[in-house]
């Protein structure tokens, strides 16, 4: 009997352990399934080191996109910037190919980001965050990748995702209308800035605490550049500003504490890389696009990624949060 068509399989961690040992030439003591998310991740341990092996979902990333991500991370690593970087096999390969049930999937072994995710950063951690991010941006504004990644512009972050909203907003048309109207207002506001002066390059576009670790000496390591794409570099600062703002909304910190934390990050970033007042002023408006982009991603990847949480209750709660943040931080006419 032929294998029934499959859209998302899970590779065996037992078989993967044997396979990776042959490919990388070191003895693996642990290989276990770590996370089923946008992609699949496995924790790989030897006697003295840890790694993370990522299996890209077939419907999520092409080989060309993966090659560009790897090229970017190698360039950062060569500059001594603290990121999780790709590890080569004994044959100097960095992207492995798997003939899975749904077709060819690709995998990459990454160095392990030492330390832990921290929600509320100390002054030293904020300082290191700002400086290291500026160093990343010094590379990302000038590098040429072999394959262009997604662009984060007003179309891709707001107008295009809105087209996929009809099914989930069918029974709550007033909420969809609010989003539609607000997109127009936000774009109008952003276009009032001199956007030609904004720094442009490759953004991480998901710099929330889940995607960087601090070790016991407050050294930061950034990881998970899966959403790497072209856009205004201030988008990366925006995602962390958004984290602080959500903490304020849920009473995890005061507005004064959030402002102080943000200012420390900006001061340290600015020691290495220039950031204009207009770029900072645009952050709340760019954050609206961040929400809309990822909501659209949830809809488009429902079968393989977001089906465990993405329902009408989630959507209503998310829209209310977006409304609260927009009303508090954006000045729209």
What does this protein structure show overall?
The chain contains ten helices and nine strands. The chain has helices at residues 13-24, 63-78, 123-140, 154-162, 173-190, 234-249, 255-270, 277-300, 302-306, 312-329, and strands at 30-36, 40-45, 50-55, 96-100, 103-111, 200-203, 212-214, 220-222, 229-232. It is globular and about 60 Å long. It is of the alpha+beta class and 333 residues long. It starts with 12 loop residues before the first helix and ends with a helix.
Layout: helices, strands, pairs:
Layout: H1 13-24, E1 30-36, E2 40-45, E3 50-55, H2 63-78, E4 96-100, E5 103-111, H3 123-140, H4 154-162, H5 173-190, E6 200-203, E7 212-214, E8 220-222, E9 229-232, H6 234-249, H7 255-270, H8 277-300, H9 302-306, H10 312-329
Antiparallel strand pairs: 1-2, 2-3, 3-5, 4-5, 6-9, 7-8
Helix pairs in contact: 3-7, 4-5, 4-8, 5-8, 6-7, 6-8, 8-10
Provide the number of structural domains. Answer: 2
Number of DSSP helical runs:
10
Question: What is the radius of gyration?
Answer: 21 Å
Largest sheet: 5 strands, antiparallel
User: CATH architecture of the largest domain, please?
Assistant: Alpha-Beta Complex
- Measured between the Cα atoms of the first and last residue, the distance is 63 Å
